[in-house]
Write a structure and sequence with these properties.
The structure holds three protein chains of three kinds.
Chain A lengths: L5 E5 L9 H11 L1 E2 L7 E5 L4 E5 L8 H5 L5 E4 L4 E4 L9 H5 L6 E3 L4 E3 L9 H5 L5 E5 H30 L1
Antiparallel strand pairs in A: 1-9, 3-4, 5-6, 7-8
Chain B lengths: L5 E6 L5 E4 L3 H7 L2 H12 L13 E4 L14 E6 L6 E6 L3 H7 L2 E7 L6 E6 L2 E6 L8 H12 L5 E4 L2 H4 L7 E3 L3 E3 L4 H7 L2 E7 L4 E2 L3 H17 L1 H9 L2 H10 L20 H11 L5 E2 L9 E5 L9 E3 L3 H9 L6 H14 L3 H17 L4 H4 L9 H12 L3 H7 L3 H8 L9 E2 L2 E2 L9 H9 L20 H8 L19 H18 L19 H9 L5 H21 L16 H4 L16 H15 L9 H6 L11
Parallel strand pairs in B: 1-6, 7-12
Antiparallel strand pairs in B: 1-2, 3-4, 3-6, 4-5, 7-8, 9-12, 10-11, 14-15, 15-16, 17-18
Helix pairs in contact in B: 1-2, 2-20, 2-22, 7-21, 9-11, 11-12, 11-13, 12-15, 15-16, 18-20, 20-22, 20-24
Chain C lengths: L9 H6 L7 E2 L8 E2 L7 E3 L6 E8 L2 E7 L1 H22 L3
Antiparallel strand pairs in C: 1-2, 3-4, 4-5
Classes of the chains: A alpha+beta, B alpha+beta, C alpha+beta.
Chain lengths: 169, 646, 93
C-alpha cells in the first residue's frame, strides 16, 4: 500500500524560543504580523528556560471533527490533515473547546476559527526554523529516528560500562 | 501596518495620556527607534535639567521594522538624559518587549513627570493605563515580571522593569525584560526609578499589515541564509558572546586589574568552552535561546552548578559579565561569574559599569587611596571573589559609604573619594569602558572616545578591523553607499583609514537602531552581513516605504548629529576628561604588557590620536572643536532644531 | 578601484576563502591558518610561535580553546623587554 502523508513533528528541546514560526505563519496565511493569528504557538516556561512549540496534531480520530455539529471539519487524506470548511462553519467554537492541544484557534478580529493546514504541503514554520525544532517528515521516520536516538544512548551506556569494567580490572 | 503604530505621551505627574500618529515626514527624516528618540529627547528636554528630576523625559521605542519580517527585530530602545554622565542616555535590549509593544499599537512612548506613588504602565491594544505598583515595589527583576502577569492574569504579557537598583537610583541601573535582556548602559533604570515607574507591561494582538507579504517572506529567507552562513554567527550560536571574550583575551585585548594589564592569565575555568560545559551539564545539549525572530540564538541558559546559589536558573553570562566578574577584578571562578551575573540580573544593574567600578575601587584600595575605613573592613583586593560579590550587593542597595558612593557612578564617586582617584577611572563622558583594552587598536580607541553615550563599543566600533580582511573587501564594505577613496588598512595597529571606518560604522549602527534590528545582523562582528544596500528592500517589502541606500545613510547621519547636538548642549568639550571625546591618560602613557608580540608594548600615540579625531570630525561636518558647521546642519536639515514637530 | 572580483557579494568573496579543519592563529598580526593534528590538544603557530589549546567540536572541526599560558606568557615577556630596550634607544614606537 502506498504510504501517504508526511507529518509535522516537534522537538521541543531544540526550540530556541524565537517565535519566527509564529511570525511567518501569520504573514503567510493572513498577510499580517500578529502572533495571535499563528497556527503554531511557542508556549514558554520562562523561569526555567523551557519552550514548547504547540501545533495541530492532525489527529486520525480528530475530536474537533467529531464534535462539529454541522460537519464543517473533515480529513484530507492526501496531505494527512484536518481541514475546516468555512462555508459550512457556523463559528460555535465547539472545536476550540474540545481540542486537547489547544491547537484550534479562534480569531477575534475576523470572528473565525483557524488551524494548521500544513501550508498545503510546504509548512513555512519548518522552512524558517533553522534549528529544526519543527520538522516535516514521513510518518514512519519519526519512530525510526527516535528508536535510533534511544538505541544510541543505550550503546553509549554499554560502552561506558565496558570501559569502566576494563579500567577497574 | 507598521506605519500606523502610534506615539503616546504619558505624564506621570498629572496622569494625562495623549496618543498621536507618527507623520510620514517624520519617518522619512528619523525613521524610528533610536533616531526618532534622539529627536524627541532634544525637543522635549531643556538644557541642564536634573537627569533624576521630573523634567527628564524617558523614551521607550521599537524600530520602524519591529515585529515585521525583517530579521531579528527584537530590539527595544530606551533613552533619556543620562544620570551617569549627563550626556545622551541610551540603552538597547533584545527580548520580546518591542514586538509586543508594536502589536499593542505603539512604536514610541514619551514618559514625563513623576508619579506620586510607585506605578506601572499597562498597555493593551491601543489603551494605556497607569496602575498602582506599591505591591510590586521592592521586588527583583523577574519577581516583578511574574507578579504583573499574575495580577493581570495573562502569561503572555511582556514587561520592561527595574529591579532594586533602579528603585535605589543607582546611576547605572538597568531596565530589563525577560530573564536577562538588559537595557544596560547609562542608567535608564535610575530614570525610571526617579519617576516612581516600576514597570511597563504590554500585551498586543493587533495586526501589523505587511506591505508585500510574499516578497517579505522570500527576502527574509535569503537574509536568514546570509546570517546563518556567517561563521561568527555560528560560533555565537554555540558559545554566545563569551567566545569574543575568550578570543580577545587570548591575544591581549581584555582589561585586567582595572587597567593594569591587557590580559587575564590562567583563566581556563571561565573560558567559553568551560561555560558551555556547565550549560550542557545543567540545562542540556540544546541550551541556547533566541530573542524575537532571530537565528543567531546567542543567549545561553544555565543553572548555577555549585555553592550557596546551586540550582538557580539564569541566562547568559555575556562577555560583559566575564569582563565584570573575571577580567577586571582578576577573579577566575566560574561560580563567581555565574553568581555575579545572576545578582546583576536580579537587582537590575549594568554588569559592565558595576564590574568596572569595583575593579577601579580595587585598584584604589591596593594603592591605599581607599582604606579599610571606607570599605568598612572589606578587603577589596584584586582576585577576592567574596569582596567582589559583596560589593555588587552594597552598590545595588547603596549599603555603606563605598556602596553608596560607587552607586553614584565614576564621576561623582571620584569627587567623593578625592586624591588622584580620577586618574585611575577608565571612563569616557562619565561612562565606564567596556572590559576591552584598546591600546593596540587605534580604530577601537577612537570609537570608544567618540561614542555619543559615553565610552561604548556599540555606537561605532569597527570590530572587523581585527580580522585582517584584504583591502578590496574592506573597500567594498566601506565605500557604499557613499563613495570613499581614501586609505584603508588591514592592520589593526594602524591609524590611517580608521576615522572613516568609525564614521561608517557610526552610521551603520544608527541605521539598525532606527530599524529595531540587532547588530549581529549587520556589519559588526561579521563582514558579510546585511547593511545599507540590503535594508531598502526589506523596508519596502515590509512597510511599502521606499528609500535608497543613500537616503538611509543620510538619515543615520542626521540622527547621529541630533545626539551630538544634545551632548554639546549639555556641555561636551573635545578634550575635556570628564565630558569630552577623550580617553584616560593611561591609554597614552602606560604600555601594554601582555598578549601577542605585536600587541605588547603598545600605547595610543597622542598626536596621531588627535589627528584621527580631526579627521573623524571632518567626515561628520564638525569644526575642530567638535561643533557642527552651519552648512552641515543645513545639509542635514537640522538648522531649526529644536523644531517641535512631534 | 580594487574591484577585481566585480559582481560578487562580500559574502561570496569571503566564502571562497573558507577552509575546514583549520583554525586561525589568535595573534591579530598573524592570523595564520593552523592545522592541528587530528585529535591533538595543542597547536603551535609555525609563523609567530604562539601556542594554543585545541578543542574538537567534532571530528575534522577544531577550535582554539585558549592559549598555552606558559608558552605565550614567555613570548609576551620577551617581546616587552625587547620593545622597552628599543624604546630607550629610539624613543616611543
Amino acid at each position: 500500500m502506498e504510504i501517504r502523508g508526511k507529518v509535522l513533528t516537534v522537538y521541543p528541546e531544540k526550540c530556541t524560543g524565537c517565535r519566527l514560526c509564529e511570525l511567518v505563519c501569520s504573514v503567510y496565511h493572513d498577510g499580517v504580523s500578529n502572533a495571535m493569528r499563528s497556527r503554531i504557538r511557542i508556549v514558554k516556561w520562562e523561569s526555567e528556560g523551557v519552550y514548547v512549540p504547540m501545533i495541530c496534531q492532525q489527529c486520525q480520530d480528530a475530536p474537533c471533527m467529531i464534535v462539529c455539529p454541522v460537519k464543517a471539519i473533515s480529513r484530507d487524506e492526501e496531505l494527512n490533515r484536518v481541514m475546516v470548511n468555512h462555508d459550512i462553519c457556523i463559528g460555535c467554537r465547539s472545536c476550540v473547546a474540545i481540542c486537547p492541544f489547544g491547537a484550534m484557534g479562534f480569531n477575534v478580529i475576523d470572528r473565525k476559527n483557524f488551524k494548521c493546514d500544513l501550508c498545503d504541503g510546504d509548512p513555512q514554520c519548518v522552512r524558517f526554523c533553522e534549528v529544526k525544532a519543527v520538522d516535516y517528515v514521513d510518518a514512519e521516520r519519526i519512530s525510526l529516528d527516535k528508536k535510533r536516538a534511544a538505541a544510541g544512548k543505550i550503546t553509549a551506556a554499554q560502552r561506558q560500562a565496558i570501559a569502566l569494567e576494563l579500567e577497574s580490572r | 501596518m507598521a506605519l500606523n503604530r502610534k506615539i503616546a505621551y504619558i505624564d506621570l505627574s498629572t496622569g494625562k495620556i495623549e496618543i498621536k500618529p507618527i507623520p510620514i515626514e517624520i519617518r522619512r527624516k528619523f525613521l524610528g527607534g533610536r533616531g526618532l528618540d534622539a529627536y524627541l529627547l532634544y525637543n522635549h528636554t531643556k538644557k541642564g535639567i536634573d537627569p533624576l528630576g521630573p523634567e527628564n523625559v524617558l523614551l521607550v521605542s521599537g524600530g520602524l521594522l519591529t515585529a515585521t519580517l525583517a530579521s531579528a527585530t527584537a530590539r527595544t530602545h530606551v533613552m533619556a538624559k543620562s544620570p551617569l554622565g549627563g550626556m545622551i542616555g541610551s540603552a538597547n535590549m533584545g527580548g520580546f518587549f518591542a514586538p509586543e509593544l508594536a502589536w499593542a499599537g505603539f512604536h514610541h512612548l514619551v514618559i514625563k513627570g513623576k508619579a506620586e506613588k510607585p506605578v506601572y504602565l499597562w498597555i493593551h491594544n491601543g489603551k494605556i493605563e497607569i496602575r498602582d505598583a506599591r505591591n510590586i515595589w521592592g521586588k527583583t527583576v523577574t519577581e516583578t515580571q511574574w507578579a504583573i502577569r499574575e495580577e493581570l492574569g495573562d502569561e503572555e504579557i511582556k514587561s520592561m522593569v527595574i529591579g532594586p537598583a533602579g528603585e535605589n537610583l543607582v546611576r547605572f541601573a538597568n531596565v530589563m525584560t525577560g530573564i536577562k535582556n538588559s537595557g544596560g548602559r547609562t542608567g535608564m533604570g535610575a530614570v525610571m526609578g526617579s519617576k516612581n515607574l516600576k514597570a511597563i507591561a504590554v500585551r498586543g494582538t493587533m495586526d501589523i499589515k505587511i506591505a508585500h507579504p510574499k516578497e517579505a517572506l522570500e527576502y527574509n529567507k535569503r537574509f536568514i541564509d546570509q546570517i546563518t552562513s556567517a561563521k561568527v554567527n555560528q560560533t555565537q550560536g554555540t558559545l554566545g558572546t563569551p567566545f569574543i571574550w575568550g578570543a580577545t583575551n587570548s591575544w591581549g585585548g581584555i582589561r585586567c586589574r582595572n587597567f593594569q594589564y591587557n590580559q587575564q592569565l590562567y583563566c581556563d575555568e571561565i573560558e567559553p568552552e568551560a561555560i558551555d560545559e556547565v550549560c550542557t551539564q545543567t540545562v542540556g545539549p540544546y541550551h541556547m535561546a533566541s530573542c524575537f525572530g532571530c537565528q543567531v540564538h546567542c543567549r545561553a541558559k544555565y543553572r548555577i552548578p555549585s555553592g550557596p546559589y546551586k540550582g538557580v536558573y539564569d541566562e547568559g553570562p555575556e562577555y560583559t559579565s566575564q569582563g565584570a566578574f573575571c577580567g577586571e577584578p582578576d577573579c577566575r571562578s566560574i561560580e563567581t561569574l555565574l553568581v555575579g551575573n545572576h545578582l546583576v540580573n536580579q537587582f537590575g544593574l549594568d554588569n559592565l559599569e558595576t564590574g568596572s567600578l569595583i575593579a577601579w575601587a580595587m585598584e584604589l584600595y591596593e594603592l591605599g587611596i581607599l582604606t579599610d575605613k571606607e570599605t568598612e573592613g572589606l578587603e577589596l583586593r584584586f582576585g577576592n571573589d567574596e569582596a567582589l560579590l559583596e560589593m555588587v550587593k552594597r552598590i545595588a542597595f547603596r549599603k555603606g559609604w563605598l556602596g553608596d558612593t560607587l552607586a553614584e557612578g565614576g564621576l561623582i564617586a571620584s569627587e567623593r573619594i578625592g586624591k588622584n582617584s580620577f586618574d585611575y577611572l577608565i571612563q569616557v563622558k562619565g561612562v565606564s569602558n567596556l572590559h576591552s583594552d584598546e591600546r593596540a587598536t587605534p580604530a577601537l580607541a577612537l570609537n570608544v572616545a567618540t561614542a555619543s553615550r559615553g565610552s561604548d563599543h556599540l555606537r561605532s566600533r569597527p570590530a572587523i578591523d581585527l580580522y585582517h580582511l584584504p583591502e578590496p573587501v574592506l573597500r567594498k564594505i566601506y565605500s557604499t553607499p557613499v563613495p570613499y577613496d581614501g586609505p584603508l588598512s588591514s592592520e589593526h595597529t594602524e591609524y590611517v583609514g580608521k576615522p572613516w571606518q568609525v564614521f561608517w560604522q557610526e552610521n551603520c549602527y544608527m541605521a539598525v537602531d532606527c530599524l529595531g534590528i540587532c547588530k549581529y545582523h549587520t556589519v559588526f562582528l561579521g563582514a558579510t552581513l546585511p547593511n545599507f544596500e540590503d535594508w531598502p528592500k526589506v523596508i519596502y517589502y515590509n512597510t511599502g516605504l521606499e528609500f535608497t541606500p543613500r537616503e538611509l545613510w543620510d538619515i543615520a547621519e542626521r540622527c547621529n548629529m541630533i545626539e551630538r547636538l544634545f551632548n554639546l548642549r549639555e556641555g561636551l568639550k573635545r578634550e575635556d576628561p570628564y565630558r569630552g571625546d577623550m580617553l584616560n591618560h593611561r591609554y597614552f602613557d602606560e604600555p601594554t604588557r601582555r598578549g601577542a608580540p605585536d600587541v605588547v608594548g603598545r600605547v595610543i600615540d597622542r598626536e596621531k590620536f588627535r589627528k584621527m579625531i580631526d579627521e573623524f570630525y571632518s567626515y561628520k561636518g564638525l569644526d575642530e572643536n567638535g561643533v557642527p558647521k552651519p552648512e552641515t546642519l543645513k545639509r542635514l536639515g537640522l538648522e531649526n532644531e529644536p523644531s517641535h514637530l512631534l | 578601484m580594487a574591484e577585481e572580483k566585480e559582481g560578487l557579494t562580500t559574502a561570496e568573496v569571503l566564502r571562497k576563502t573558507r577552509t575546514y579543519g583549520q583554525v586561525r592563529c589568535h595573534n591579530p598580526s598573524c592570523l595564520g591558518r593552523l592545522q592541528p593534528e587530528p585529535g591533538a590538544d595543542r597547536v603551535k603557530c609555525p609563523v609567530c610561535g604562539m601556542e594554543f589549546r585545541v578543542t574538537w567540536i567534532k571530528s575534522g572541526f577544531p577550535r582554539i580553546r585558549g592559549p598555552v599560558w606558559d608558552v605565550n606568557v614567555k613570548i609576551a615577556e620577551e617581546a616587552f623587554q625587547r620593545k622597552m630596550k628599543e624604546e630607550k634607544k629610539d624613543g616611543p614606537q
